[in-house]
């Protein structure tokens, strides 16, 4: 009985397919609460199996260690480590600290059972089996890396990055009309490869809409907050259903903010304000 047969376990293969499919397609096409959590569930299911298949003696503790590492990774305790890695390495590491992700931790009970008690099948060391195992191990490694290495985004330059996608049950034209009915502008800015370039990645930015001088009332602050502009995309995914992605916001009283901790805090703060004072008014 070979522990590497864990890689050929149906649970592992299914979880890996879900993880890759969700990260590469579902999040981009149907970005919502479910797709945001799906990778956490799939990742916590397959990661202990991946480690146990390589390091056979880890089977007793790998699920516990994975849960502890996941909780630490999602907590502020990981911030100094992430900052140090990003300063010393050419690879940028990132994660979203969302405590609701902890709902995925119980799936580690299933991982622990599979690693320690589920039947493993003896397989011949045929070339095809070896190639299949090796391929799945490589795919798994890159799938885990993809969850911590942010993908380059071709987005307009702005002060605070939001990067939140919502699906609204309205045609795109109706959304534009609704925004203008409030007295706001909804200006379309097509991508221009000769002028609008992402200065970091040196590639054309995407086309986007912009609404200026949005007044948003925060129930815990006075006076009302004014956002200089909000940049967003509108994509009608099917008749009567439109996806809106809030790309970034620019504040009237802020210049280019350099402190990443402040950027993170402001991003979380304005994500809530934009949802309440912009998205929910449309929806």
Rg on CA atoms, Å: 22 Å
User: What's the helix-strand series?
Assistant: HHHHHHEHEEEEEEH
Structural class: alpha+beta
**Proportion of residues in β-strands:** 15-25%
> What is the helix tally?
8
Strands in their spatial order, largest beta sheet: 1-7-6-5-2
Question: Could you characterize what this model shows?
Answer:
The structure is a single chain. This protein has helices spanning 10-29, 33-54, 62-73, 79-88, 107-116, 127-146, 172-181, 260-282, and strands at 160-168, 187-189, 197-198, 203-204, 208-216, 225-238, 241-251. Mean pLDDT is 76; it is low at 151-158 and 193-204. It has 2 domains: 3-146, no CATH class; 160-282, Alpha-D-Glucose-1,6-Bisphosphate, Chain A, domain 4 (2-Layer Sandwich), CATH 3.30.530. With 283 residues, it is an alpha+beta fold. The termini are far apart. The strands form 2 sheets. A 5-stranded antiparallel beta sheet has the order 1-7-6-5-2, covered by helices on one side. It has a two-stranded antiparallel sheet with strand order 3-4. The protein has 8 helices and 7 strands; from the N terminus they run ααααααβαββββββα. β3 and β4 form a beta hairpin. The longest helix has 23 residues, at 260-282.
């Amino acid at each position: 009985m070979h522990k590497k047969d864990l890689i050929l376990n149906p649970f592992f293969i299914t979880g890996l397919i879900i993880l890759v499919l969700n990260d590469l397609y579902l999040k981009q096409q149907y970005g919502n609460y479910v797709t945001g959590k799906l990778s956490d569930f799939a990742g916590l299911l397959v990661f202990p199996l991946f480690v146990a298949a390589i390091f056979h003696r880890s089977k007793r503790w790998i699920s516990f260690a994975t849960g502890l590492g996941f909780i630490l990774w999602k907590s502020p305790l990981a911030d100094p480590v992430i900052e140090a890695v990003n300063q010393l390495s050419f690879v940028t590491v990132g994660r979203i600290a969302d405590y609701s992700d902890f709902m995925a931790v119980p799936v580690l009970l299933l991982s622990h059972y599979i690693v320690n008690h589920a039947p493993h099948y003896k397989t011949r060391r045929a070339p095809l089996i070896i190639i299949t195992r090796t391929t799945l191990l490589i795919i798994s490694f890159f799938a885990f890396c993809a969850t911590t290495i942010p993908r380059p985004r071709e987005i307009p330059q702005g002060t605070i990055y939001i990067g939140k996608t919502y699906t609204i049950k309205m045609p795109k034209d109706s959304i534009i009309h609704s925004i203008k009915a409030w007295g706001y502008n909804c200006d379309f800015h097509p991508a221009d490869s000769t002028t609008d370039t992402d200065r970091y990645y040196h590639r054309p930015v995407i086309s986007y809409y912009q609404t200026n001088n949005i007044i948003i009332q925060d129930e815990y602050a006075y006076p009302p907050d004014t956002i200089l502009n909000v940049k967003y995309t509108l994509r009608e995914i099917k008749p009567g259903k439109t996806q809106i992605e809030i790309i970034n916001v620019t504040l009237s009283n802020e210049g280019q903010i350099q402190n990443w901790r402040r950027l993170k805090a402001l991003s979380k703060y304005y994500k809530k304000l934009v949802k309440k004072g912009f998205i929910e008014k449309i929806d």
